[in-house]
Amino acid sequence: MNIALVILSAGSSTRMGTAKQLLPVGDTTLLGVSIESALQSNSNKVFCVLGAHAKKIYKSISQYDIETIPNDKHEEGLSSSIVEGINFIEDKHFDAVLIMLGDQPKVDYNYLNMLVTSYEKNPTKISASKYLNNTGVPAIFPKLFFKQLQQLRGDKGAKYFLNAYKTQVISITSEKLIDIDTQEEYQNFLNSL
């Protein structure tokens, strides 16, 4: 199975007040943590969608063996990054795409590999992360869903899509699914290390 892993990291971090992708975590950044987990996973190639602050962020991640995807429409919301990611990889012979966020630093390669394993056992189903009452990303979508993903609009990203295809989704629960959106969440994460 040939799996593309696409990290969505194009947002402007309005609630944080600064580019959260560049926030220091140990000897890397918040986005760097996600990239390192992605590179250690069983995916075949890692891509990162960049939009706001792209030049600065690109410089901070240039040492990683990944390919970046520009998203000039990032102000249209998370869906625009998913669409750009799928548009970029669709003709590159991937069987599936694993979509993750650049601001979920507790999502490690073991968790990503659980999604990959679930997909390998169920190659026609979506394997997605289960939150309290929702399903979301990280999630792995077989190629047969690429066309529908390219129709996404707005800031809800994959959540509505996953709810619409509930019968096609295998849910995987984890306590690692925290997002970092505010200074307080960032401090709490640093304190937990």
UniProtKB/TrEMBL annotation:
Q: Does the keyword Zinc apply?
A: no
Domain MobA-like NTP transferase, by residue range, is 6-165
Q: Which InterPro entries match?
A: MobA-like_NTP_Trfase (IPR025877), Nucleotide-diphossugar_trans (IPR029044)
> Its Gene Ontology molecular function terms?
nucleotidyltransferase activity
Q: Sorted alphabetically, which keywords does the UniProt record give?
A: Transferase
| Name this protein carries in UniProt | Nucleotidyltransferase family protein
Question: What is the organism field in this record?
Answer: Psychroserpens burtonensis
